[in-house]
Amino acid sequence: MNISLKKSDVNIxxxxxxxxxxxxxxxxxxxxxxxxxxxxxxxxxxxxxxxDYLQNLADHKQQYIDDTAAMQIxxxxxxxHFPVAYKPEDDIxxxxxxxxxxxxxxxxxxxxxSSMIEVAxxxxxxxxxxxxxxxxxxxxxxxxxxxxxxxxxxSLYQTPISISMTSTYRSLKDIISHINTDPNRxxxxxxxxxxxxxxxxxxxxxxxxxxxxxxxxxxxxxxxxSGVFYGTNDIFNTGAKSAAIAAEKKAEQEAExxxxxxxx
Length: 264
Known about the structure:
The chain is an alpha+beta fold. Among the domains are: 7-59; 83-134 and 142-214, Ribosomal protein S6/Translation elongation factor EF1B (Alpha-Beta Plaits, 2-Layer Sandwich), CATH 3.30.70.60. 47% of the residues lie in helices and 22% in strands. The strands form 2 sheets. Strands 1, 2, 5, 6 and 7 form a 5-stranded antiparallel β-sheet that branches. Strands 3-4 form a two-stranded antiparallel ribbon. 7% of the residues are buried.
């Protein structure tokens, strides 16, 4: 079957093709290109933001290094004010020094158990490097590496101490100042003072807290109290007592043997 088209029909078809081709190009090529361009622009914005961040770090590198060093000095200064532990012998020695250096008598000392203080601590952070791979001036780009920054295990402990004390008013003020300014951190939690009309002195009950910090580079050093002997091999002196009992039994046996000989 032969189909004959008029010249006007052919012109119409050509016109339709002329319209459909640009429309097809727009929807299938240009529109797809526009979507890809928008996605690339968005990705470029993210990458540019990261590049700007890294460049800002590079521009202020020395400042960060100096600030970190200054903060580290401050941290070490704070840590230096905390002993690694606070034990009963430290407490006894401290009270003895207070009595020797101030006009005070401290007949009663009570030391509680050390307990850890819950404080906010830095958490472990995982830093991904190399995504994206951006070369910073003066530094090599590192890709697909994971660096873990682990916070040191440092714990703060508190040890409660209670004392009863007899002192003058001036001595009490000096002792309070001594505790508050002690190089090893301490803090007074309560203080009760009563005036003794018979002696003219103050009777005080004081509770204060000594602090210690574990996980540092310090090592605990046992205090040395001159003139005081630490420990004994036999606190009940059982060796001497056993020897005395044995000697007594031997003497009794010898006495009995002598009496037997005389009887014979």
